Amino acid sequence: MGQALWRLSPRQQQQLQEELADQLTESGGGRRDQGRDGGGSQRRAPQYCYSPDIYHLLKTRRGKEQHGFIDLEMLPPELGITILSYLNATDLCLAGCVWQDLGHDEYLWQGLCKSTWGHCSIYNKRLPAGFSYRRLYLQLDEGSLTFNANPQEGISYFMSKGILVDHPKELAKFIFYTRRLNWKMLRIYLDERRDVLDELVTLHNFSNQFLPNALRDFFRHIHAPEERGEYLETLITKFSHRFCACNPGLVRDLGLSPDAVYVLCYSLILLSIDLTSPHVKNKMSKREFIRNTRRAAHNVSEDFVGHLYDNIYLIGHVAA
After folding, report:
1. Predicted confidence (pLDDT) per residue in 283-305, tens digit
2. What is the total count of domains within the chain?
3. Which CATH number characterizes residue 313's domain?
4. Which of 8, 150, 184, 220 has its CA 20 to 30 A from that of 290?
5. In terms of residue numbers, what domain contains 262?
């Protein structure tokens, strides 16, 4: 929702400021300074900016002499969903006890499910009569907690509830659009399910992205292992092929290949460690990086490798 919808006119702002100042004076037992033209000091009201909806809510509440927080049901739906999205399942159930009607609002629970777990197989099914998105939210939360303790048991829980289908593409979409999965458990699961990893890589679109930025985006969804090994080599290999497939023009113009991108990715990771680690005293210079990288990737231009160094130097680690 645009900011213009949440902005008061100057006249409404002035009226609200005067009412707030009156309320602060009455609650503090003081008196307002009279005679604005008489040179007396006047308390300046704080510069609040409320939407017209919230303005009328405050005005109505003052008229009824209500105290405490605004009833969440009286707020705009977009604001209510934003507030509730910060709560976990337990807090949402407690909130549903306070706001009875809101706690049984299926549209609200549907929005919370899809904003937290962006893709589930059950979303594309024909839902039976009496289906409850509130119950689905609790099951998704329970399954995510189970996954963060044991990935295989978590996926089995989702399948037993009909939330997910045992298909690599469906599982990859669920992982890609979910915010609640622990990255360490996710790394263990993807290391065991390479078919899901393959589908997860294809969900990334690296078109028109600079190589270090694309690598950061990749490691943001698929976290790199802490030590060099076969799994890291597999990730970089899959990323290299996907990056070249998404940028055929760049590959043609710069003479890149999956093998060249593979070498550049390793160079970027080593450079990131060199420049960001406090244990490395003598940092690699730009000239050294260009020389070392071009020894392994002969077809890559010196200017392109120099831009790679500048990106790491200014932005930071590619796998942080």
Report:
1. 999 999 999 999 888 888 899 99
2. 1
3. 1.10.1000.11
4. 220
5. 204-319
